[in-house]
Structures are given as structure tokens and as C-alpha cells.
Amino acid sequence: MNRDAIVIKESDNVATALHDLPHGQPASVGIGDETISVILVGDIELGHKFAIRDISRGQNIIKYGEIIGRATDHIAKGAHAHVQNIESLRGRGDLS
């Protein structure tokens, strides 16, 4: 099966698009040997992230098994996860 996006670790809550993905379409997301389908609620550009499950405001964003940021707003399953709804937790200097 062709995959539209990938998830590296099962703990990840975002996937990375392998090509441009249109709003309203199901995306085939590879997680290891499994594939899940996620209906996209917005256009997702190549290389960008989208939520593979609902992410609550304040919840960690996990990509490649690592915390890469925190949700600044609710991110619905299938929604674009980017600077408009994620704050970085890396290299800030104000967090311990």
C-alpha cells in the first residue's frame, strides 16, 4: 500500500507528509508495519506535520519519539500541526 505520511515511533502524535495532501482526503499513515487512515481537515504540504489523534492544548507534540513542542491550542485529528498551534520547547533557555 502506498503511504501518504509516516510516523517513526508509536508514541508519536503527529505524522509527516510525504507529498502534498489535500483537505478532506484520507491520508494513509505508516506506523511501523501498520497503516492507519486519517481524514485531513486542511491541506498539508510536503514535509509538514498533522495530528494523527486529537491533541489537547498544553499537550506535548511528539515526533520521532521526541518531544518537539507543546500545543498552544487544541489540534484536531487530521489538522495541520505547525507554528500556528505549536510552541517550540527546544533551545529557548527559559525552560528547565
TrEMBL record:
GO terms for molecular function: lyase activity. It comes from Desulfosarcina widdelii. The keyword Lyase applies. The lineage of its organism: Bacteria, Pseudomonadati, Thermodesulfobacteriota, Desulfobacteria, Desulfobacterales. Gene3D superfamilies: 2.30.130.110. This is D-galactarate dehydratase. PANTHER family: ALTRONATE DEHYDRATASE (PTHR30536:SF5), ALTRONATE/GALACTARATE DEHYDRATASE (PTHR30536). Keywords: Lyase. It comes from the Bacteria. Residues 12-87 form the SAF domain.
